[in-house]
Structures are given as structure tokens and as C-alpha cells.
Amino acid sequence: MWGGETHRVLAVRSVDPLLSLLGSIGLVAARGTGLVVDTGGQLGRGRRSLADLASDGPRLDEVGPGRSGIAVLGSGHLPLVEVERVAGILATRWPGVVVRLCGDGWTGATVPVVPLYPGCLAPEEMGAAVWQRIAGGSQPPGPGPVLPDLRSSLVRRVLGGGHPGRGRWVRAWSRVWEMPWA
């Protein structure tokens, strides 16, 4: 059903801001090493931004990974069309680039991350997405991987700036890189 070309840049969008943040980290962690570009401003504060790279040029350590793991950059005040262009350039050296979307204007491959809330909050039928299981929640109303429940320890670790590890939740993100996102 899925398969084919592996993406180098994927954007993550969710109606739930926490899921968009966690999903961005989980997706790049599934790649092993990669870069998250945050257009929402919650990640990568106090560091150089993607806007700095676009105006000043990247430093050698920003062109590609110097070690394994997750790197994070805020987008600065760069318009999404420029974020898309610069992320594409960085993806030639990074194993994976994930853009956390918090606005409109992105034209590249986008992964919707949808919480499976219960009852009247349950999502209605829709296309492919990554479905986040919620205790007591609904069944996915479309195709795509269903992530295992988020453990509170993983959420605390990621929100504290730590790596999410290689547990079931991160492994479930692995096939997302090969799915045909529009």
C-alpha cells in the first residue's frame, strides 16, 4: 500500500500544538539523525535561526550533522516559502529535515497528525494521516499509521529538551518517511 521514494523534508501539522511539537521530534528521531525547523517558536530559542542561515550563510556545523541525534532551529521571521527553500538546501546534507508548521503557505509534503479524541471530538473521515491514540478515543477515520499511547515520561523528557529514545512510539514514526504525502 505504501512505499516508494523516501522524503528528505517533511512538514508536520496538527490542530493540537503539543502533538505538532512532539510529532516533529518523533518523526526526526525515527530517522536517527535530523533537523527540526520550528515555525512556531517553541523550539530552538536563543540560538541562531533559519533566518540567520538564510541571510548570513550557514556555519560549517550547520550545513550537516556533526554527530548523531536531533538538532533544532527556530525559523526566525522567515516566510514559509523561504523556510521551504532553505530546508530543501539543508536536506541535501541532513538525513532528514522536519518542519513544524504553525502557519499557512507551505507547499511541500505535509504530514497531518491527528489525535483520536473520543465522542463528539472524534475526527471525521479524512485522508491519510498519522493518528495519535488517546485513551478512550475513537478509531482512525482514514489510512495511515496509528501511534501507540504517549507515555507521560516521554512527553516530559521531550518537553525538557531530551531525546525521545527509540521506543515503540518513535519506531512507529519510521514508515511515515516513505508514505506518499501531498
Description of the molecule:
This protein has a seven-stranded parallel beta sheet. The longest helix is centred in the first third of the chain and has 15 residues. It is of the alpha/beta class. The mean pLDDT is 89. The chain starts with 8 loop residues before the first strand and ends in a 10-residue tail after the last helix. The protein is globular and about 50 Å long.
Q: Which key features would you list for this structure?
A:
alpha/beta; 182 residues; 6 helices; 7 strands
Number of helices: 6
Structural class based on helices, strands and sheet pairing:
alpha/beta
Estimate the strand proportion: 15-25%
Shape: globular
- Measured between the Cα atoms of the first and last residue, the distance is 16 Å
Element-by-element helix/strand order: EHEHHEHEEEEHH
